[in-house]
UniProtKB/TrEMBL annotation:
It comes from the Eukaryota. SMART domains: PWWP (SM00293). Residues 3-58 form the PWWP domain. This is PWWP domain-containing protein. It holds the Pfam family PWWP. PROSITE patterns: PWWP.
Amino acid sequence: MALNEYVWAKMKYFPAWPGKVTRHPDGIKKKGCAYVFFYGTHDFAFINEANIVPFNSALPKQHRLKKYKDAVEELQTIIEDPSKEICKNIPVCKVRVRVLKNKAKPLSFTLKTRLRLQTRKR
């Protein structure tokens, strides 16, 4: 699958869900898998490429779940108006933390956190 392509992605125990192939924030890649952003839930996962089809292909089995309908509607809105895309340049924030313990040698580590903007309909 091509980067930034809109897709239907299927995870075990879940229906095929609308998503977008994107890059992992740390540049991690898994052989035979694509990193997918899921519309509606705003989650990410590595999905086996055998379980991914282009969004413009035949619509998978319809589901009555409200979240499913909202996810499909969200992606269709973005396709019609790309300025509403929420999965652009997902920021990665690297924070350096120093921990002092009993005035001893400071412990240092780096914490990586992915910040996601979530929009909710009201």
